[in-house]
Amino acid sequence: MNDQPSAPLQVEAVVYEWKSGRYGTWANAVIVTQAPTTEATFSVKRLGIQPAVGKRFHCEIAFVKNRWSIVEVVMDHLPSTLQSVRATVEEGAAKGVRGYMLTPLDSGLDLDGVALVLPQAIVEHAGIAFIRAGTEVLVDAQRSGSRFEATTLHAPHAGQAFPGGRPAGAAQRPVVAFAMNTWSASSAKAVPFATHGEGAPVSAMIWVKTSALRALGIQAVQRATLPETDTDEQSRALIDSWSVILRGPREDSEALAIDRVLVWIESAGEDRRWNFLRLLAPGMFRVPTADGEVIDWVAGTVDSVKVHVPRQQAGAALQASGSGADPQSGPATPRSASSDEADAIAGTHPEPRMMVTYQFSDERLGRGTSRAFVTESVSRSAGLAEGVPIIVRLVSREQYWSTSHVHRATPHLSNTHDDDSALAQ
Prior knowledge:
Layout: E1 9-14, E2 19-21, E3 24-31, E4 39-43, H1 44-47, E5 57-64, E6 67-73, E7 81-93, E8 99-104, E9 115-119, H2 120-125, E10 128-131, E11 136-144, E12 147-155, E13 175-179, E14 183-184, E15 191-195, E16 202-208, H3 210-215, E17 220-221, H4 232-246, H5 250-253, E18 260-268, E19 273-281, E20 294-307, H6 339-346, E21 353-362, E22 366-375, H7 376-381, E23 389-397, E24 400-409
Parallel strand pairs: 9-12
Antiparallel strand pairs: 1-3, 1-5, 2-3, 3-4, 5-6, 7-8, 7-11, 8-9, 10-16, 11-12, 13-15, 13-18, 14-17, 15-16, 18-19, 20-21, 20-23, 21-22, 23-24
């Protein structure tokens, strides 16, 4: 045994049969060039590569632990880079890397059994969350250790997640999106979700704002299993059931394991990507999908009453705020002031205005937070203060709920009627 060479020897070998054992896939490779042995053990787990059966390959062998083993697959004869390689995505995950195994389609491309891998990081860089098995891809790749790794994904693109395109804004039907990461309310990072149309080769990756999740009462998200196995109808029914729980006792909603949501999306990047537009469900209140929807006689309880300091001189002082001033898209754009409001801005009615923040609860809407703006005298005469019940009218504006009218507060003056213009906002 001491006469065996100490340095590795370069040879050519071939595998005629792969076997499965305790330590993974292995074979007794046959050495087909001159060598001190006719066979050497090949471990796929150790080498990270699995040559095709019957295909000769270059390798190095060494005498290790009283037996001949293949210690390296030699790839010096292969190119360092590959350009515009057509391949298909195989079933199952790639070994040793988070990504996809690819099968080249060009019969003239001989990789000598070396694996071609598409890393998930390259896929996500293209705005894609997931690629279906069997999908044809076009990639550039470079040699990395014992395999080729794709460096650029030319096709498909994320726009193909919805092959027929989608209407813009509220004209579209909401789509189901699946969480790619686990998230809790203590995290400030946006959450990546995967979404696609029926039969699409890819799922697009969209980033849902944490403010949008918190605004609908979602405190945690768990990572979904992709590709999903539920039908679209089953997913929508599950989301509806979560909304019911979110609108109930808070202790029940805290135990929810939410892994999918209902969203609006919009095309971006010359129709090659999709962006998050709005979160619709599940939620502790129903998000409006059209302007002008009225929900009247909504009960609420005042949280606070503060002097309103407008951000802008014109119009902002009279802006009616919806559920948190549209927390999903940032500060609401002030609406045009009416003639009465213009008089107030001009100084005809210089009386300070009060911002009344209140919690509402209604079986038609759910529960949430909104705001109303009244003059200081109205606030004082109506007895508005923390804990005081109020009745309001909510109207949908720009896809959020706006307080359009404060009917009454309890306690209130005996001569204040439901249609009292002093309380109408």
